[in-house]
């Protein structure tokens, strides 16, 4: 793999690792608990990290990396768009974002609630520059989708010229 392609993979690895490290920093160092959708929004980044690792070991080529990361960014943008919709009351929360208690008396209800702490997907607990993390994730996912689209277009034109 050329030096240029390795540099692209290193930059991508840094971007995706930084995103995951930031999520864990906010959760464990700042002690801000994520909601269920926040956990779901991490999955595309895990997948992207695996794709990049496979590319480093030359199991997939750079075009395949861009296609997979374009798809991954689309999934991430979709999840974060849904999360923003919940935050803004455009959509209802998932069942996993609310408590599903089945107790019929207060003593059992209290025990049940203590055993399953549920963070509402609707509540914006942490913001950066006035934006929720779901909004930041959406913007970042759109930017990444555009970049991967440009890379794929460039790669296609480069192939035609050779």
Proportion of beta-strand residues: under 5%
- Second CATH tier, the architecture: Up-down Bundle
What series of H and E elements makes up the topology? HHHHEEH
User: Order of strands in the sheet with the most strands?
Assistant: 1-2
Overall spatial form: elongated
Structural class: mainly alpha
Q: Ends: how far apart?
A: 18 Å
The biggest beta sheet is recorded as: 2 strands, antiparallel
Which regions are unreliable across 5 or more consecutive residues at pLDDT < 50?
A: none
Counted beta strands: 2
The average pLDDT score comes to 87
Q: What is the top-level CATH class?
A: Mainly Alpha
Question: Which superfamily, in CATH terms, is the homologous superfamily?
Answer: DsbB-like
Q: Can you describe this structure?
A:
By secondary structure, the protein is an all-alpha fold. The protein has one domain: DsbB-like (Bromodomain-like, Up-down Bundle), CATH 1.20.1550.10. The chain contains 5 helices and 2 strands. It has a two-stranded antiparallel sheet. The longest helix has 29 residues. The mean pLDDT is 87.
Keywords, please?
two-stranded antiparallel sheet; 2% strand; Bromodomain-like; 162 residues; mainly alpha
